[in-house]
Design a protein that fits this description.
- The chain is mainly alpha-helical.
- It is 30% helix and 5% strand.
- It has 14 helices and seven strands.
- The strands form three sheets. It has a three-stranded antiparallel sheet.
- Strand 1 and strand 2 form a beta hairpin.
- The longest helix has 24 residues.
- The radius of gyration is 38 Å and the shape is elongated.
- The chain starts with a strand and ends in a 12-residue tail after the last helix.
Length: 390
C-alpha cells in the first residue's frame, strides 16, 4: 500500500518535472490546466480539481474508471464544511449539497498526465516525466491532444466543457444501454457523443463493435422465428434455413438370408447390425462391410411389411460457398456461382501449389453440383413420389 502525504501518493520526484509545477500544484512558465482548479478550506494554498472534470478531459465516462485505471491518483471525499464552502464560492451548485464530492490534487493529475492536462500541451516539453516520454518515442513539441480546441490570442479557454452542470454529463450519458435488452428489444437512445483521444480510442472502437455485433445477433434471432408476410399470409424464413433441393429414393426391401436370423413375433431371435438386416455370424459381418456407408440402423422386416418407413438425410456441400447445386444452379443463385466462375486470367496469377489446391476444390464443387438434378427435378417444382403404393 503506497503512502499518502499531502493528499497525494508519495512517488519519486523527477528533477526536470519539478521545474514545471510547484509543490502546491501551480504550473510554471505560463502553463494552464485544461480544467478548473481551486483551493479547499483548511487545505492551505494547495490546488485541487473535481475528480469528474479531469476524468472527462482525459476521456473517461466517470471518475470511477478514472481512479481504477490510474492507481497513482488519490481521491479525497470532501467533508460537509468544505462542501458548503465550495457551494458558496459557486464552484459546485447548491443541488450537490447531498452528494459525495470527490476531488484530487492538481499536482498529482499533472504528474500523471503531463501535457494532456495542459492547454495546448506539447509532448516532452509539458510532460512531468519528460525522460520517460523521450524513451517512449514521443516527438518533442508535438501536440499531446490534437483534437483539443485551443483558443486564439486574446480568447479564453472553455473549461466549462468538462463541467457536469454545464452539459458535459449529457455527452457521456445518453440513456441507451451498452448492449441490447435480454428480450431482444433495442432501446433507442439519444445520439451518443464521446471525446475520442489517443488513450480511449481502442476502447471506444471495441465497444462500438460489440454493440453492433449485439444488434446483429438480436436481428438474426428474430429472423429465425420467421417473419409474417401480410401479402401472402405466410411465415417466411431465411434462405439459409431451407434446402434448395430434395429428392425421393425408394430402396428395395432387404430379404432375410438366413432362417436363423428371421425375426420372430417377439423379436427375441433377431439381431440388428449396421448395414445388414437380421443377419448373424459371418453373414452379418460381410453384409455390414458392403453397406457400411449407411448411417441408419436396420429395421426388422416385420415393420417393412406393415408400414412405410422414411429416413430424412441432410446433404451439405463439402466446402462452403459452393452455391446452389445442379446444372442450373448458376441461373438460380443470385450470389457467386462458385469456384467455376473465377476467370482463367486470375488463375494464372496463382502459384503452382495454390493452383493445384484450387483445382482440387473445383473438382469437389463439380462433383457436388453434378450429384443433383435441375430445379424441376430436385427443386421446388419436383414431383416427389411419396405414397404408400410406390
Amino acid at each position: 500500500m503506497a503512502n499518502v502525504r499531502n493528499d497525494e501518493v508519495e512517488l519519486p520526484e523527477d528533477p526536470e518535472g519539478e521545474t514545471k509545477v510547484d509543490k502546491m500544484g501551480r504550473l510554471q512558465d505560463g502553463r494552464e490546466y485544461r480544467v478548473r482548479v481551486f483551493t479547499i478550506s483548511g487545505k492551505g494554498d494547495r490546488l485541487y480539481m473535481l475528480s469528474t472534470e479531469p476524468a472527462r478531459c482525459i476521456g473517461f465516462r466517470d471518475s470511477y474508471l478514472f481512479f481504477q485505471k490510474h492507481r497513482q491518483l488519490y481521491k479525497i471525499i470532501l467533508a460537509e464544511e468544505a462542501k458548503r464552502d465550495l457551494i458558496e464560492r459557486s464552484i459546485i451548485p447548491h443541488s450537490y449539497k447531498g452528494r459525495a464530492i470527490g476531488v484530487v490534487t492538481a499536482r498529482s493529475v499533472f504528474r500523471e498526465f503531463g501535457a494532456r492536462i495542459v492547454i495546448g500541451g506539447r509532448k516532452v516539453i509539458d510532460d512531468y516525466q519528460a525522460a520517460a516520454a523521450r524513451a517512449n518515442g514521443d516527438v518533442v513539441g508535438e501536440l499531446a491532444v490534437p483534437d483539443d480546441k485551443v483558443p486564439g490570442s486574446g480568447e479564453a479557454y472553455d473549461k466549462n466543457r468538462y463541467v457536469a452542470w454545464h452539459g458535459a454529463s449529457s455527452v457521456y450519458h445518453s440513456g441507451a444501454p451498452s448492449v441490447p435488452m435480454p428480450n431482444g428489444k433495442i432501446v433507442d437512445g439519444k445520439k451518443r457523443k464521446v471525446i475520442v483521444t489517443g488513450v480511449n480510442w481502442m476502447f471506444e472502437h471495441a465497444r462500438e463493435a460489440s454493440r453492433f455485433n449485439s444488434a446483429l445477433t438480436v436481428n438474426r434471432r428474430q429472423n429465425l422465428n420467421g417473419i409474417y408476410d401480410t401479402h401472402t399470409n405466410t411465415m417466411q424464413y431465411p434462405r439459409i434455413m431451407q434446402p434448395t433441393h430434395a429428392r425421393w429414393e425408394q430402396l428395395p426391401t432387404p430379404a432375410t438370408r438366413s432362417k436363423r436370423a428371421r425375426i420372430t413375433a417377439d423379436g427375441s431371435s433377431g439381431r440388428h447390425v449396421t448395414g445388414s438386416l437380421g443377419l448373424m455370424g459371418s453373414e452379418a459381418q460381410q453384409e455390414g462391410e458392403q453397406s457400411s456407408e449407411s448411417i441408419f440402423s436396420d429395421i426388422a422386416p416385420i415393420f417393412h411389411r406393415n408400414f412405410m418407413i422414411a429416413d430424412t438425410y441432410l446433404a451439405t456441400p463439402p466446402l462452403s460457398g459452393l452455391g446452389i447445386p445442379g446444372p442450373d444452379g448458376e441461373v438460380l443463385d443470385i450470389g457467386t456461382g462458385g469456384l467455376g466462375d473465377i476467370p482463367d486470367h486470375i488463375l494464372t496469377e496463382l502459384p503452382e501449389s495454390c493452383r493445384q489446391a484450387f483445382n482440387l476444390a473445383r473438382a469437389e464443387e463439380m462433383k457436388w453440383k453434378g450429384s443433383w438434378g435441375t430445379e424441376e427435378e430436385d427443386g421446388a417444382r419436383a414431383k416427389l413420389r411419396i405414397s404408400y403404393n410406390t
